[in-house]
Write a structure and sequence with these properties.
It is a single chain. The chain is of the alpha/beta class. It has twelve helices and 21 strands. The protein is elongated. It binds adenosine-5'-triphosphate and magnesium ion.
């Protein structure tokens, strides 16, 4: 019998190669190729064009039940999921070590169990007494969660197959799971993929909502094969500074809803509490209105991030050439904006030094930041602070018009979520119902009038 062929899989992108190479040919990462479990002798001998079951095709408009969602009783968790957990869905939650993944999922499992749902929590990382200790610290010890410490997928599925499927199955974490169908230690690409595949198949067949915890690598992506993210329905990322109390739960992918809502939590002794008005945390340090400071709702990949733009204008007495210094933005773009402000709005910057800074070391490349930069400049020049809870967005043309920008509704929703109550931007593209007062500006002169009118 021919020896089964070896295959190598890239741990970063999941691409397959027939021989080991130092660098993946697809994603160019180094030392990411690992040997995959060999093909079975049975599979090697058979082809796939016969002997199967004939599929029955269905119509797109065939009646089907609407997506039912189950609330986790944690409103912020539900919000990040797009309105609750969908039965039969697979959710992958990634996050830095110690950020609170196990805490959040134990709280969600306990809440579901207390509301009469059957919640199963399988820990592959901690012994049951550790989880029990956490539960009693969180005041959840009385919740009828079924808890087990296990790492064998076969054991888990055998146990769950004996009675009614639970409503929620938490597997903490997928990197500790082991499938005896294939070779390799837990945490290897082929093990993670095979274990996830079996668990997801069980979830789809039985209607169990499955939550897999995933480790993250140094650069913040979920460890293991990228295909894991493709296999699940929802990818959540739990983020935050460990030294800081606040945590943000974001959906990076959601097959059942939008990914533009975030859940905000505070890590306290009694667990994660929901933060309904997170403005306080994101605006910390911006307590009083200062001239020259404007907030811009930026987009980072698919995620909105609010950044503060600061401008300082220093009038020069002598006729020396004034400096323009920019940190975090494009110098050429600043020169253009200053020229437009001079020629279209009659403001004079020619005898003044202009300093522009994007706070927090953030780098902006988005042209949508034009209006926020212009607002900061005009505010600094006039020494008039902008309203504290306002955001500015829009691209400025050479004629001084404010042009629509991409993802305006998403940016406005994020701003509203973070406690901002008014926004100024282009007249078009703001969406139907932003949860804040929106001023559509046609041109930069409208901006100057607005800044001059502010308190
Ligand atoms: N006694 C305590 N009082 C307050 N907070 C605590 C206490 N014990 C743990 N914590 C908090 O809980 C966090 C650990 O949470 P958790 O174990 O849920 O994280 P995790 O994301 O599951 O981590 P890992 O990746 O290691 O599994 C700690 O970083 C700490 O902030
Ligand atoms: Mg954990």
């Amino acid at each position: 019998m021919a020896k089964p062929k070896r295959r190598y899989v890239c741990a970063e992108c999941g691409s397959v190669a027939n021989r080991w190479q130092g660098q993946c040919a697809d994603c160019s990462q180094w030392n990411t190729l690992v040997e995959d479990a060999p093909e079975t002798a049975f599979a090697a001998k058979h082809h796939l064009s016969g002997g199967g079951r004939v599929l029955a095709f269905e119509k797109l408009d065939a009646p089907s039940a609407p997506t039912a969602r189950r609330s986790t009783s944690l409103a912020e968790f539900d919000r990040a999921l797009g309105g609750g957990i969908v039965p039969g869905s697979a959710i992958l939650m990634g996050g830095e070590p110690g950020i609170g993944k196990s805490t959040l999922l134990l709280q969600a499992a306990a809440a579901i169990a207390r509301n009469g749902g059957d919640a199963v929590y399988v820990s592959g990382e901690e012994a049951t007494h550790q989880v029990r200790l956490r539960a009693s610290r969180l005041g959840l010890a009385d919740a009828p969660v079924r808890l087990a410490a296990a790492t064998s997928v076969r054991d888990i599925l055998t146990t769950l197959g004996r009675d009614e499927p639970p409503a929620l199955l938490v597997v903490d974490s997928i990197q500790t799971m082991h499938s005896d169908m294939i070779e390799g230690a837990p945490g290897t690409v082929s093990q993670v993929r095979a274990s996830a595949f079996e668990l997801i198949r069980y979830a789809k067949e039985s209607g169990v909502a499955l939550v897999l915890v995933g480790h993250v690598t140094k650069d913040g992506t979920i460890a293991g094969p990228r295909v894991l993210e493709h296999m699940v329905d929802v990818v959540l990322s739990f983020e935050g500074e460990r030294s800081h109390q606040y945590r943000i739960l974001r959906a990076l992918k959601n097959r059942f809803g939008a990914v533009d809502e975030i859940g905000v939590f505070a890590m306290e002794g009694a667990g994660l509490t929901e933060v309904e008005n997170p403005s306080a945390l994101f605006l910390s340090g911006r307590d009083e209105p200062l001239a020259g400071s404007a907030v811009f709702p930026a987009i980072e990949g698919t995620r909105p991030v609010l950044v503060e733009i600061q401008a300082l204008i220093v009038r020069l007495q002598s006729g020396a050439t004034p400096r323009r210094a920019v940190v975090g933005w494009d110098t050429g773009r600043l020169a253009m904006l200053l020229a437009v402000l001079e020629s279209r709005c009659g403001l004079s910057f020619s005898s003044a030094e202009v300093y522009l800074n994007v706070a927090g070391g953030y780098r902006l490349v988005d042209p949508a930041a034009d209006l926020a930069v212009a607002a900061a400049l005009v505010s600094a020049l006039a020494d008039k602070p902008l309203p504290l809870r306002s955001v500015w967005l829009g691209e400025v043309s050479l004629a001084g018009e404010i042009r629509p920008v991409a993802h305006t509704p998403l940016r406005l929703r994020e701003a509203a979520k973070l406690g901002f109550d008014n926004a100024a931007g282009p007249t078009e593209g703001a969406g139907d119902k932003p949860r804040l007062a929106y001023a559509g500006l046609k041109s930069l002169s409208g901006l100057v009038d607005r800044v001059m009118a502010s308190a």
